[in-house]
């Protein structure tokens, strides 16, 4: 099972956990792989072996499963950056600025000891063993703007897959435009299955004592998250909108970092925002994925830029406000869920009004759509399990 679970990004860490749980329930053991060896088990994640290990470990009859994320359109340099700390990432950026993006891509691929041209596009032909390759809960909207040569290369390898499922209609449309014969299916993100794995009470038990105390003391609250570039561009208005929403609803604010990788770094911006909000509480740096999930599942509302913040909120029947930004991933998914009218993207100056608007959605409305999306994700996972068995 190959994913981006080798870096601290909430959704990327959940993909292998939920997938492993679902397939284990169907009788299939899994081993987790990333681009490098990693052990983030202190944050609740599965340890992962590296991509070099994958090619060495694979045996005849194995299934190599690409297990989620916007990973049909990723490049080595960008993924390498997310695996590094701030100093290492800045060094890699300086290398790219000096020698060009082509050299930087080759260097990153070489340093990660990979055979494939793109990080998460893996052909069965590259293995010595006879394996099948499958893709589940994937996305790839940037593929539309890739050079034709790269599009052809990616689609050529995807055509060799034994199972290909994406999580929203835009990615499916792009793939079908590039190759109408691709047997691509669409199903909601597999993280919608999280409540079947862990109820809200089970999340509470898995959360750290500090976060349980923080949530208890917060009373009625809403979670806010955004990545650092968005936050820096809208700092003043965000503070005004969050204060307005808290005042109108009578709720407290819980700042909830979700991405802690280079170029996202929610925690860096939110820590600075806390002071402008009168010291609004924030999940600590030690918070793991179950702490984040518990905070989201216990909130009255989630506002942010994170897709998996919204997936977690909705699947635990919590409304959400998606903040409009230059990444269409969230909008693509919300449209595919059939909920773009209920939860439209909000410009920063609309955050408070959209948050208030969410109050009209009753528990029954949220429960109905959460159950519908969980059921569709579960049926897709069953199809995957049957394909593995075939």
Please characterize this protein's 3D structure.
With 390 residues, the chain is of the alpha/beta class. It folds into 2 domains: 199 residues, no CATH class; 177 residues, 3-Layer(aba) Sandwich (Rossmann fold). Helix content is 49%, strand content 9%. The chain has 17 helices and 8 strands. A 4-stranded parallel β-sheet has the order 1-2-3-4, with helices on both faces. Strands 6-5-7-8 form a 4-stranded parallel β-sheet, sandwiched between helices. Helix 3 packs across helix 5, helix 4 packs across helix 5 and helix 11 packs across helix 16. It is globular and about 60 Å long. The two termini are 18 Å apart. The mean pLDDT is 96.
Give keywords.
390 residues; alpha/beta; Rossmann fold; 2 domains; 4-stranded parallel β-sheet; 49% helix
């Amino acid at each position: 099972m190959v994913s981006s679970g080798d870096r601290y990004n909430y959704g990327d860490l959940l993909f292998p956990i939920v997938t492993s749980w679902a397939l284990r329930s169907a009788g299939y053991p899994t081993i987790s792989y990333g681009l490098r060896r990693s052990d983030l088990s202190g944050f609740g994640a599965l340890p992962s072996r590296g991509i070099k290990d994958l090619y060495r470990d694979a045996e005849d009859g194995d299934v190599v499963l690409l297990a989620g994320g916007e990973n049909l359109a990723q490049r080595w340099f960008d993924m390498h950056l997310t695996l590094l700390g701030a100093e290492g990432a800045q060094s890699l950026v300086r290398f790219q600025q000096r020698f060009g993006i082509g050299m930087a891509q080759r260097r990153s691929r070489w340093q990660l000891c990979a055979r494939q041209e793109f990080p998460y596009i893996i052909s069965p032909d590259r293995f010595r063993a006879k394996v099948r390759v499958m893709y589940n809960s994937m996305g790839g909207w940037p593929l539309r703007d890739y050079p034709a040569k790269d599009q052809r290369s990616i689609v050529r390898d995807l055509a060799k897959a034994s199972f290909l499922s994406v999580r929203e209609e835009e990615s499916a449309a792009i793939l079908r435009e590039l190759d109408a014969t691709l047997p691509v299916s669409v199903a909601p993100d597999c993280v919608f299955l999280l409540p079947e794995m862990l109820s809200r009470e089970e999340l509470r038990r898995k959360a750290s004592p500090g976060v349980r105390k923080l949530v208890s003391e917060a009373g009625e609250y809403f979670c806010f998250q955004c990545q650092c570039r968005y936050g820096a561009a809208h700092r003043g208005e965000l503070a005004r909108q969050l204060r307005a929403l808290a005042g109108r609803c009578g709720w407290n604010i819980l700042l909830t970092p979700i991405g802690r990788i280079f170029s996202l770094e929610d925690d860096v911006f939110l820590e600075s925002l806390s002071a402008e909000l009168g010291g609004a509480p924030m999940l600590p740096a030690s918070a793991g994925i179950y702490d984040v999930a518990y905070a989201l599942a216990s909130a009255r509302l989630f506002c942010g830029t994170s897709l998996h913040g919204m997936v977690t909120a909705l699947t635990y029947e919590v409304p959400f406000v998606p903040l409009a930004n230059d990444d269409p991933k969230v909008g693509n998914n919300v449209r595919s869920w059939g909920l773009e009218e209920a939860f439209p993207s909000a410009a920063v100056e609309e955050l408070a009004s959209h948050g208030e608007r969410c109050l009209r959605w009753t528990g029954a409305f949220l429960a109905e759509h959460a159950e519908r999306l969980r059921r569709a994700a579960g049926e897709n996972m069953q199809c995957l399990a049957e394909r593995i068995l075939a």
